[in-house]
Amino acid sequence: MRLTSLISISNLVVHQSHAFLNGGAFVGNQIVGRASTSLTRGGRQVLKAVATAPVVTESLTKAAVEARGLAMDSIGYCHSGHLGLPLGCAEIGAVLFGHDSGLTYNPEDPQWINRDRFVLSAGHGSMFLYSWLHLAGYDLPLEEVKNFRRFHSMTPGHPEFPNSEHNTPGVEATTGPLGQGVANAAGMAAAAKMAAARFNTPSHEIFSNTIVALCGDGCIQEGVSSEAACFSAQEGLDNLIVVYDANDVTLDKMAEFTQKEDVAKRYEAYGWDVVTIDGHDLNAVSKALADAKSNKNGNPKLIIAKTVIGKGISAIEGTNAAHGEAGVKYVDESRKELGLPEEKWYVSPETRSFFKEKASSLKDTYNKWQDTYKAWQSANPDLAKLLQSGIDQSTPSAQELLKVIPEFDQTKNIATREAGSVVLQPLADALPLYVSGSADLHGSNKNYIKNGGDFGVNFGKSYTGRNFYYGIREHAMGSILNGINYFGLFRASGATFLVFADYLRATIRVASLAELPVGYIFTHDSIGVGEDGPTHQPVETVSGLRVIPNLDVIRPADPEETAAAYAASIERKEGPTALILTRQNVRTLSEIPVSVRREGTLKGAYVAKKETSDLQLIILASGSEVQWAMDVAKDIPGARVVSMPSMYRFDMQPESYKESVLPAACTKRISIEAGVTPLWWKYVGTAGKVLGTDKFGLSAPGDKVMEVFGMDYKGLKREVEAYM
Amino acid sequence: MRLTSLISISNLVVHQSHAFLNGGAFVGNQIVGRASTSLTRGGRQVLKAVATAPVVTESLTKAAVEARGLAMDSIGYCHSGHLGLPLGCAEIGAVLFGHDSGLTYNPEDPQWINRDRFVLSAGHGSMFLYSWLHLAGYDLPLEEVKNFRRFHSMTPGHPEFPNSEHNTPGVEATTGPLGQGVANAAGMAAAAKMAAARFNTPSHEIFSNTIVALCGDGCIQEGVSSEAACFSAQEGLDNLIVVYDANDVTLDKMAEFTQKEDVAKRYEAYGWDVVTIDGHDLNAVSKALADAKSNKNGNPKLIIAKTVIGKGISAIEGTNAAHGEAGVKYVDESRKELGLPEEKWYVSPETRSFFKEKASSLKDTYNKWQDTYKAWQSANPDLAKLLQSGIDQSTPSAQELLKVIPEFDQTKNIATREAGSVVLQPLADALPLYVSGSADLHGSNKNYIKNGGDFGVNFGKSYTGRNFYYGIREHAMGSILNGINYFGLFRASGATFLVFADYLRATIRVASLAELPVGYIFTHDSIGVGEDGPTHQPVETVSGLRVIPNLDVIRPADPEETAAAYAASIERKEGPTALILTRQNVRTLSEIPVSVRREGTLKGAYVAKKETSDLQLIILASGSEVQWAMDVAKDIPGARVVSMPSMYRFDMQPESYKESVLPAACTKRISIEAGVTPLWWKYVGTAGKVLGTDKFGLSAPGDKVMEVFGMDYKGLKREVEAYM
């Protein structure tokens, strides 16, 4: 069989050189293949080129057919799922998992630190991933492929990063919310660059990971991928390859209904290398991947693979009906057309043996790497220890971490964001693999690691830099944070104004679900922001975050609570933590012993002031309002103050501790927090009273706004008096 | 003074024609000016062109200087705010508000329906807007300019669309959260296209609005503007002009630190016309605006205005220090350098008189339009009546609307999303100015107006179409919905899966703050989604929305509650409404009279089943869980069921109604909702019990997932028995 590949030249490339008509076809900045005839496809100039060396084998072709069969059978069996991508990208899967130009991995050691990462950004096409992981020899038995989308299977509807519910080896990211996977991959690529810069030595290369994401039109349309694309080019992530399954179809309609843009040109504008290929041509896929992997020119790579959605179900392929499970009614006839036997979930002995051989060849690479690693380990024992600590995620306990944070000057009143900056420095010294970053608000968020350097290229940046400049791209920041944490070595945190947590909320949800230890530093935490007004004053944001399962939200009251909050965020491995910090100064609560404030914060809530007569009243507060609770309670012997920086942590305490802090016998309770009130009813009870800001704020100096909303000493005193 | 303008040619344009070196400079697709010498600026080829006809006047130059003075004085006075943009864009402001090539407006009638709209997407530069609105003669007295950022001033920190707190004439959108303003403008441009298509006649043009947004690097970097840019080109919004204040600086650093992309090329890839100019050259600004306004070629226009941030404060202009208020310490010397007198907030008699003349000339245009309008009105009385109803936002009451919705077949069980589809049709018939749309999920959200047609161009779309295809761009959809509603004629609603409400949450916040009557149709509302798994199963999302002030969140239990929910969303004018609908079928609660379900929904909660003996227990539920509450309570004489579709509405009822539904005497209460539980404590009380899903869901058939989480008849029965 003589094979040809379709290679398209985007406009820019044509513009960059006019040589293309004379036989040299430009792809990104490289010449590939030899142009023969030109034709037009999808409105873009396309060249039909003879590939320089055929790489396709009968085995890959066969594997692609059988992967199609697996997807059809699993989706058909449960009558649910998405046929479009697994069928349309079967050849891409064959090359990725079956050919040298594809991924470097070891199915026996899915956690191998130098493996390439594959992210299925179009997560709905999960049967693509499961089929290929199974064929490639990962510990994903055929039984589990059959159990697709069933209760407690290893093959949930969308890929889920191994967590306490699932452990599907080879799944590198939780995907489905579109666009985020591309940004996750950018985060992984950044982490890989950092790993290489931090751990490789002139004589030993430990890290050389390539990150490959497969995405669809949905991912390309989402803004988060645009942001991530810009960041990736900016920071020179040439180890990132995005394969764009360009099938010209979205769920509702043909893609042209919503997408007339020139995607190639757009990515070139970001600074990516772009090539357009026929995604069903194994040679073209292989060549594009090989070129992308080898060309370390500083540019990320976009491979636009023109495919036919649902290819293999001739009744509906190429239409939006092929996207979901509608095609299952044609499965029987389609399997026949593909030449598959009647046996469902059929994998031929030839394919089994092909992947056995593939695994063995991959094992050689793996073993060679192990030799390198051992040599590196002997030569660099300290580095090796550091690396191991990253692999093990062996961060110290919060108590240990707190030892490196000196007590604050108890006579000085500072903002908790400022306290955060102070706390961060010794923590960063103690944790070399902790990295920070901000969406263009380093100066305001104050989470800059002072001796950490800046991550990236040019302008004095370096890949060893520990401060990320995400630009004004909060959504991408959130997904990149997830990506860095998925990579598994670095602990990444990022910052913006609290009110803009909304921009990255969709990624916080994924971090919570995937149980990633991401840290969020959200400053400017209430109407106390002042003059910037309601667009910049969070009122509902803290509560909005608190309802996300598995997210710890900590709103410390003063510098010592901030120290504990930071330490807690680093100690926590089972999910993300959001630190909620003030813009404005708060009173340092020097009347409470430092250890009480620190340890109390770790428990979520604690008695900040104990009543000096019979308990009459409990004032609950968080963050900047604790100072007022303390001030007001000072003059009321029967009043207790409970500082509650984290509802999440408090809820997890044993009942005995909860009762010791909030005795059931005392139903006279009042809460104050400069935010919406509904969540406080749980702790205040029916007989209680909740004080807060249940409407949007206003533009005026912060103290004035606080006063207007009663979020100050006078306001609280007035309400407490009225209540008692 | 001889004036020249710098006009850059982006790569594509160069590529499209090679004539540029011979004297013809391409801007977008048009030749402007005559090239003289070429130079390089900011890495892009730039042509120095002699403008064909100087349009600058001494008056505009003077006005720009005085506008700078106003910004310096106001920001200096309150020591807060952002100097960078008002100073860097002073010439742009002068042309926009002072020259024919700029905006068409009437300061005496800021609600004039054919005015051009100006959106300051970079909302932090609010003093730009206030200065120019004041100079242009809007009812924004100098006193209010002086009161910038003070309590209850008309000049809050970021521009706020007139609402119950503020009424600043000329402010067309609440901006500050970056990127959204560009998308708001796209929404306004879409609304203007629709207005023209719906109301203009061959003999009378009532609508010819141009929409101008001014944005900065932050807006350009945000993904939401990317999404909106793609949508705008797709739908041919050539009435949209985005002026990009390209000052090469972001808050933290020089922009090149985070932004190496070629923005011009990127926008060309979307399908925009792009021109790069010197933003301080009045001629160039004027020419670019005039060209952009007149060139109705189907493409939106991007004017990249190279500016010097903070221009006028020589000590820091052009650096990131000029972004905020840091420059106020140089104000005195800078004012002198600019030639301003010592008097603060100085406006010369010449400038006053210039804008008086300008207003008078604008008034001529306005008066001519009034003549046209009157003629049109006489010729088209029905159309005029419809238009007036849009201007007045005179939608019928929910009770009236419910009259057009027939009762459902009470024997059939359908999903509430399906009920939504049924309900939408008569409502859409009754409300010709109501428009719908979806982020590529029309088939799933089922909010398609069946006889409404599709909005846009090509593929059978038309600007009269009432169904918007937003593509897979939820964030832009949210902002575009705001933009359509800002425009003031149409009531726009949009849809996606509930779990992806997170993607547009930042825009829902703005809609709530700006009191826009946006409708959100969020379907697939719980773990009942089933096989798609936890990435697609909202558990926290409903509660996350409920905490947003001024957002009504309604989760109906069955078709009749859905009818009322839809009607309520249309009746409500003071803010947005989110309808939360099921994917799966629910039992139609035929045992409750239709009128009780409908009217009860409008009140937020109601007694769905009254106890038949002494009240022992109240079961509270919402949405799909109400059916289980009814089924379980059927066998318990002392049990009452309260259906609570909207906490927001219930909270606003008089105490007497609340007591009638939830008598304080009955503290035995249990709630069930397939979502996180914390918000229910407010209604259930200390002695109560809350049932829900406080962790992420899992992938399995929906019934199975519901069973696993106890969100079914058996689960509720078990818990109720244990509780009693």
TrEMBL record, chains A, B:
Mg(2+) binds at D217, N247, V249. It is an enzyme of class 2 (transferase). InterPro entries: THDP-binding, Transketo_C/PFOR_II, Transketolase-like_C_2, Transketolase-like_Pyr-bd, Transketolase_bac-like, Transketolase_BS, Transketolase_CS, Transketolase_fam. One of its GO terms (biological process) is pentose-phosphate shunt. PROSITE patterns: TRANSKETOLASE_1 (PS00801), TRANSKETOLASE_2 (PS00802). Residues 414-588 form the Transketolase-like pyrimidine-binding domain. Its cofactor is Ca(2+); Mn(2+); Co(2+); Mg(2+). Its EC number is 2.2.1.1. Keywords: Calcium, Magnesium, Metal-binding, Thiamine pyrophosphate, Transferase. One of its GO terms (cellular component) is cytosol. Thiamine diphosphate binds at H124, G176, P177, L178, G218, N247, H323, F500. The keyword Lyase does not apply. Substrate binds at H82, H323, R417, S444, H524, D532, H536, R583. GO terms for molecular function: metal ion binding; transketolase activity. It catalyses: D-sedoheptulose 7-phosphate + D-glyceraldehyde 3-phosphate = aldehydo-D-ribose 5-phosphate + D-xylulose 5-phosphate. Binds 1 Mg(2+) ion per subunit. Can also utilize other divalent metal cations, such as Ca(2+), Mn(2+) and Co(2+). Binds 1 thiamine pyrophosphate per subunit. During the reaction, the substrate forms a covalent intermediate with the cofactor. The record marks H82, H323 as: Important for catalytic activity. Belongs to the transketolase family. This is transketolase. It comes from Vaucheria litorea. The lineage of its organism: Eukaryota, Sar, Stramenopiles, Ochrophyta, PX clade.
